[in-house]
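User: two proteins, same treatment. go.

Assistant:
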Amino acid sequence: MATHQDFQLSGAGVKLGPGARVFGFTNLYGCEIGADTRVGTFVEIQAGAKVGARCKISSHTFICEGVTIEDEVFIGHGVMFTNDLFPRATTAAGRLQTAADWRCLPTVVKRGASIGSNATLLCGITIGEGALVGAGSVVTKDVPAGAIVAGNPARVRPRGKAAR
């Protein structure tokens, strides 16, 4: 186990709360990570992203600009967040896009939510407090507080029932 000083960060401005632990081969820049949060290997957290206190971010996860994760959230292995509903490499005129050519849509994961491994979350949504997103789900719209969602696209499931 090591502190962020033991890793090469691709940019300045990483803010780690007390007791936060970051494991090897991560790519963090311009982000905030709260107290006592654990960030696994092969995780990227981009500038402007915020992760709350006492969270667990599992390996191979991508947290992009515009994502806010509140306290006590579990993020499984290989979870992918997005921040652009219409991604393109170039403009209509054929030049490479810049920051001025697209709009970052924020995503919020509320306190105590859990996101299962390999879930994909489209941008502009809110995952409600204490909600559970099943592994492999593709979340395209808001998830109510306390709800269980699963599938592609993710749909609310009755408590105690797995996706079929």
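Protein 2:
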Amino acid sequence: MTPHELVAVLEKHERWLKNKSGGNRANLTMGNLEGANLAGVDLTQGKLSGANLAHCDLSNANLSHADLFAAHLTKADLTGCNLYRADLRGAHMRGAKMKRAILKEADLRGGALLYGGGGKGGKGLDFVRSDLSGSDFDDAMMSNANLSGADLTDVSMNGADCEGALMTGATLMRSAMKNCNLARADLRGCNMSGVNLQGAILRDANLTGAVLAGANLRNADLQGARMEGADLAGADTTGANLARSAENFSVQIQESLHNHFTWINTNGAMGSRADLSGADLSHIDLHGVNLSGANLKGVNLTGAKMRDALLIMCDISNADLSNSDFTGAILDGATLRGTNLSGAKFDGAGIGWVDIKGPDGKPTGRLWAANLTGCVFVGTSCVRINMRGANLAGCDFTNADLTGAILSDANIRDARFTGANLTGASLPPPPDLDD
């Protein structure tokens, strides 16, 4: 298409938009406009499906409601472009500049294309995936956009507003999404390995089955996010708000917690003791819950919020409680043998002995001590913790804060306190080396 022909199309389209005589809706379907300067043009509702717009300057253009199905926008400049509700299914946008672009409710899914062939004049169907890899979406407005299945590898979406966006099955590997707003976004099954989500907002987002291996989630807000089956291997969650209510876990886990609650409140007459051995309860919020007597052997409670919880006589052996918050929790008589508690908070918690009660509910006078042999407390905050009478043999308290801690009558044989803060702590006498 010559420049004169293009100008004529744009003029007629402008008249069409204003309902003036002689107007005609722009139809640039399959047109070759590579490298054209279309900055600031108004192509609202224009037909550009399959058009070659590679390297075009479309900065600040208005392409709202435009048909850009399977259009080629490779390395095009769409800075500040209005693409509100545009049809971009199957579009090729590799390396495009999309800074501050408006993509609210735009459709960026893959698209099906008809092609000739199939024998005897038949036609075939080819599915084209939207290719947005390497594009720059910094500060773009993409709320409620549909990017399901799109290839967003290595894109930059820093500061972008993607609230409520549909991104199921999208590929976001190594993408830069610092401070991105993904509240209520649907990210089920997304490949987000290595993505930088530092400071991002993911409140109430659906990350079920998403791969976040090696992702940067520092200071990210994931309050209420659904993360069942999500892969967080090697992810940096420092400072992240990852609290998840029980409703965000599997039906089996919810039923187990509910039945245990009934079991506790009916003194065992109804319900059943919770068996959550080996379950992934990472970042769960069970503030104040009563899980006394539950089987939590080998459970993953990394980053869990367990403040003021009751876990008396629980089996939490060989579990991972790193970076969790058990402030004020009571774990008297519990078994935590071989459990990792590094970086956790146990300020004011009780992990001592418990008085065993008989069938009549009265104390028997027999004490059952908490078993913490071989536990790792590296860097753990244990300010004013009460571990009186506990078995702490072989525990590693390296760099732990034991200010005001009560460890009297505890077994600390072979325990290590290198670099630990023991200010005001009550310790048992050193073990007899000849014993």
